[in-house]
Model the fold of this input.
Amino acid sequence: MSHTENEPEFIEADPAARRKAVVIVALTIVFGGLVVFLILALEGPLQDWLEDNIELLVSRPWIVLIASLILVSPILWGGCYLFKYGSTVVRHQQLPAPGYGIVRRMSVQRGREAVFKGRLVQAVSAFIILCATMIPAFLTALFVLLGNME
Done:
């Protein structure tokens, strides 16, 4: 089917992509909820452990770095995925990017408009990655500084 200049082009939803998106969202909600539940449920014992082992963490701040990187790794993964998606949009000058599943019917945007939106996705994802990396960096720096105070 050919499209005239005034007639928008559409891409239909991919049922497999929709199922995959539902599974990813459900797993994210379950995993995130489980982490929050465990932190709240174990707040007392976790606080006790931290108080009892503060010297260990101060003398080995890499333990804090690894633990905090594990906690923010889903955010880092999501940010990297979004950055890759934005790069694909910019490279192909098309939104939605080719090769990615679409969960609902979307109009295709091409050229400058697609590149602008792709760059916007890249900027937002870079901000997400920066914020997520600041948490482990700040915590590690805090424990390094505590170790240097002794």
